[in-house]
Write a structure and sequence with these properties.
There is one protein chain. The protein has about 80 residues and is an alpha+beta fold. It is about 30% helix and about 20% strand. It has three helices and four strands; from the N terminus they run H-H-H-E-E-E-E. A four-stranded antiparallel sheet has the order 1-2-3-4. The protein is globular, with a radius of gyration of 13 Å.
């Protein structure tokens, strides 16, 4: 739609991953190692943008933590589900 602005808190899965990691590690998001050191945030956002019907899942290590992102927007950090805002 013309004039529609992205709501990065709802539309950016990479931002949601950062928020979930901050919550899981009890760390301010600013103090976390940049996500781009372990995964391409733009590619992650593109893969999971919009309402995809594909059943996709991406897993990667972030430091000592296991991160899983599912096509339904579910984010798991060390097998614990973190709800997107």
């Amino acid at each position: 739609m013309p004039g529609t602005m992205l709501d990065y808190h709802n539309d950016s899965i990479s931002l949601s991953v950062i928020e979930a990691l901050a919550d899981a590690t009890d760390t301010d998001p600013i103090d976390l190692e940049p996500l781009y050191h372990v995964v391409d945030p733009e590619a992650l956002d593109q893969l999971f943008q919009g309402n995809t019907t594909a059943n996709a899942r991406i897993q990667f290590a972030y430091g000592e933590h296991s991160v899983e992102v599912r096509s339904d927007g579910t984010i798991l950090i060390d097998d614990t589900v973190h709800e997107r805002p």
